[in-house]
Amino acid sequence: MQTPENYVNERLDHLGVVAGVCEEIGLAAYLDRLAGETNRHVSIGTATVAMILNGLGFSNRRLYLVSQFFANKPVEHLLGPGIEAADLNDDCLDRTLDWLYAQDPTQVFAGIATQARKIFGVSARHVHVDTTSFSVSGAYAGDESAESEESVIAITYGYSRDHREDLKQWMLALATTQEGDVPLFVRPLDGNSSDKVTLASAVEALHEQLQAPESEPSFFVADSGIYSEANMRRFNEAKIRWISRVPETSTEAKAVVETASERREWQDSEDGQTHWFTCIMTLPQGQERWVIVRTEQGETRARATLKRQVDKAEHRWKQKLWHLSNQSFACEADAQSALAREVKGLPAWLEVQSELVSSEHHAGKGRPRQDAAPTRHWHIQATVTVKQPQVEQEVRRKACFIVATHVLDTSILSDQELVTTYKEQGSVERGFRFLKDPMFLASSVFVKKPERIVALGLIMVLCLLVYRLAEHRLRTRLAETEQTLPDQLNRPTARPTLRWVFQCFEGIELLHIRSASGTQSFVLRLQPMHRLVLAMLGPPYEKIYKTSS
């Protein structure tokens, strides 16, 4: 009697691309070498890759539901023979998180990122550094006690980037390359950490990590939170190349910005959208090159913001002067004193024009006696007007910002490259937006122990690393081969987002046909667009989506 055929469908979708990147950078092998010989059915490396697949599956499933996520996925095809969805339970993943924490997640990620950057050929000439916060729900009562380990982060209240001051939080320091937005460094931090301290130590650690005899030294780019006399002196002594925005709170910065509009040495970019001039500043920490920048886009924003402020201020001052005009004064001196008191704090772009008017009044009711002397009262008639030239001057002042570096030689770093590099600080911000996506694994952190939050931070940034590497290679090779993919509006683009590519891969299935003669596997619904993406990524990725027998 002939054995009936058995059909099994499994959802492959875009997970083959994710698994392919993990395989190419040797992520599981790297972690398994660190772990050494273990008796675990699911190795540390395999469990970590499983959590990355879950995170980049954008299914918003908590860790204890990972096995449910893999229930209809080709687990053996993605993770290796002998692995089943039931093996990826919360006990397996919790033990993996505990192991990752014990190995120092910052060092673990540094090793993986360095290996991945070399394999994918990503330049680290410009590295952007910043911090963000992640809110958590729960008491975490014991996190701030003196008995807790010094290496465990404190889940506590602090300045929230998400405007959730009512919740406790933890913070994350992240560094990404300008080329491809690829993360190179991660460090979980206390919820109330200061940028001036944490960013400086992150830059120093990353400087040590990236030092190599054959490579060009990196430029480390940060916002004004890192800028201080002490930090810049530390960087200069360590010969760290840095680029930072200068906070406008210092006396030197205020003086430079105030006189910026009077300068004649402004230079313009080729597109006319950016304007700048340079000052060499001698400061306690050493000489620095300050580039004062004004952009057309920033000027438009500053003009819109100031217009709202001017309208509100004009309305408020008109009300104040109306109330003042309804008061009467016994003498001219009293009226002038009252007017002087009222106009204190008047913005420079408002002007008050006033006139003192006197009038005579008789006391009491009815017709006064013929010999009664009238009493003289003084009133203020005042109007407020907007001084438009001063408004424009203020707009230009507010649109200016200062970018500084200790590299004085423009042949190493030109003024325009300095400005352009700082404006790419959005590289690390895009990484934070990715990590905080509502559909992402870590959008809600529900692990109980701070140690596992630290380890989960590592998983989050490993997901970002895999995502950015695949996106960077796809965009690079599309540009090299002058090919395009259709975007959401079916327009050709050579810079698709990997999220959109992942959506296009939805519905791809792996069909297994089991019979007495053996098992055949077929990849279903693979279209020419999918094949082009896989060809751009490389043969290992094509192999994952290739029909096998």
Please explain how this structure is put together:
The protein has 549 residues and is of the alpha+beta class. The chain has a domain at 250-359 and 375-409. 42% of the residues lie in helices and 21% in strands. It contains 19 helices and 16 strands. It has helices at 15-24, 27-35, 44-55, 66-69, 75-79, 90-102, 105-120, 195-210, 229-237, 251-258, 296-325, 332-342, 388-399, 415-423, 426-435, 450-480, 498-504, 528-537, 539-544; strands at 6-11, 126-136, 168-177, 183-189, 219-222, 241-246, 267-268, 274-283, 286-295, 350-361, 375-386, 400-405, 485-486, 492-493, 509-515, 518-524. The strands form four sheets. A nine-stranded mixed beta sheet has the order 4-3-2-5-6-12-9-8-7, sandwiched between helices. Strands 1-15-16 form a three-stranded antiparallel beta sheet, with no helix packed on it. Strand 3 (168-177) and strand 4 form a beta hairpin. It is elongated. The protein starts with 5 loop residues before the first strand and ends in a 5-residue tail after the last helix. Mean pLDDT is 87; it is low at 142-149.
Radius of gyration: 32 Å
Number of H- or I-type helical stretches: 19
Q: Beta-strand percentage? A: 15-25%
Mean pLDDT: 87
Number of strands: 16
Shape: elongated
Give a quick account of the main beta sheet: strands, pairing sense, barrel closure: 9 strands, mixed
The first-to-last residue Cα distance is 24 Å
